[in-house]
Design goal:
single chain, alpha/beta, Rossmann fold, two-stranded antiparallel ribbon
């Protein structure tokens, strides 16, 4: 067994054995309870209606065309997010992504599970991490979300259907145009996507650049259609 595998196992065992408390408000929770208490989960703010029928961006009124998803490739359908990426949700995402608290994926998945793209017959495909980030974190947060959703919905999670072929700088501080360029040709789809209805899974939707690029690769590999679900959605930057 590789050192990275042993490190990941040890990290997971440590998280289970530590005394339970809410990661956000630090109230006590039991060993079988989620790491974000019900009170803090209730503060995660769901996205309001109406939304763009395609990309799910909340709007003041129903719209026929949306600048956010206008350039998406044909065949990429609905993108939906459970909550806004405000301070409460950002704390949870940070603990999942950087803190090693993989069990946070479970309460996140509870809110994601009712979203429209998660319908019978869909295949859950997490956005993959590059090898260096995967080694550093010990796991892929999108894969944890996909597995938690699979357990809750009965859908199948396929973690090998999409591969990140090159390292990319973090998208966090990049403007929308640079995000699209940053992820261009970043993904590879091995054989196996033909005829499948894919739902891409990730933690945060910002501009949709990563989801659009990954979706295009899956469509070119024969996927019947591609939709996406994320836990949180960042507010678009002011222009």
């Amino acid at each position: 067994m590789r050192w990275a595998d042993l490190k990941g196992i040890a990290r997971e065992a440590e998280r289970w054995l530590l005394p339970g408390e809410c990661l956000i408000c630090h109230a006590a929770v039991g060993t079988e309870d989620p790491l974000v208490c019900p009170a803090c989960q209730s503060r995660w703010r769901r996205l309001p209606e109406p939304q763009c029928a395609r990309c799910g961006q909340p709007t003041l009124a129903p719209v026929d065309s949306c600048r956010l998803c206008a350039a998406w490739p044909d065949g990429i359908g609905r993108a939906r997010s459970a909550v806004w990426l405000d301070d409460q949700a950002r704390h949870a995402v940070h603990h999942l992504k950087y803190g090693g608290w993989w069990r946070v994926a479970e309460p996140m998945a509870r809110l994601m599970a009712p979203l429209a793209p998660l319908k019978p017959g869909a295949v859950l495909v997490p956005i993959p991490l590059a090898r260096r980030r995967l080694r550093a974190r010990g796991y892929n947060q999108a894969e944890r979300l996909a597995r938690a959703l699979a357990a809750r919905t009965g859908l199948v999670a396929e973690t090998g259907l999409l591969i990140r072929r090159r390292e990319t700088p973090t998208q966090t501080t990049l403007p929308p145009e640079a995000r699209r360029a940053n992820v261009a040709d970043a993904f590879l789809c091995p054989p196996g996507a033909d005829g499948k209805r894919v739902v891409l899974i990730d933690d945060v939707f910002t501009t949709g650049a990563t989801l659009a690029e990954a979706g295009q690769v899956l469509l070119e590999a024969g996927a019947e259609g591609v939709e996406s679900v994320t836990f949180a959605r960042a507010r678009p930057p002011l222009r």
